[in-house]
Amino acid sequence: MKKFIFNLKNIRKSKGINQSELAKLMNTNQQQISKYENSVELPGLEKLVEIAISLDVTLDDLIEIKQIKENEKD
Questions:
Q1: At what angle do helices 2-14 and 30-37 cross, to 10 degrees?
Q2: Closest Cα to residue 55, out of 10, 67, 38?
Q3: Which of 41, 48, 69, 72 could form a disulfide with 35 if both were Cys (CB 3.0 to 4.6 A apart)?
Q4: Could you give the domains of the chain?
Q5: Contact, 61 vs 52, CB < 8 A?
Q6: pLDDT of 6-63, one tens digit each?
Q7: 52 near 58, Cβ under 8 Å?
Q8: What is the H or E stretch that residue 29 is in?
Q9: Nearest by Cα to 26 from 4, 9, 48
Q10: Exposure string for 53-68, b = 16+ CB within 10 A, e = fewer
């Protein structure tokens, strides 16, 4: 799941959105976003979908499912 944390922070920053703004889009607080980005807490599937919608990206952009599958084959 480390790849997700990396992608969340980079995608959020590339869109010019700070943690507070993303939290507002998701109807949560900045501390929760910080927990996700710092691996203190990992979001469930429902929250992953909400993050993807809020950032206007796909789930694969966040967690790179294809990359995970390729790594499992190796």
A1: 130
A2: 10
A3: 41
A4: 2-73 (1.10.260.40)
A5: yes
A6: 789 999 999 999 999 999 999 999 999 999 998 899 899 999 999 999 999 999 888 8
A7: yes
A8: none
A9: 48
A10: ebbebeeeebbbeeee
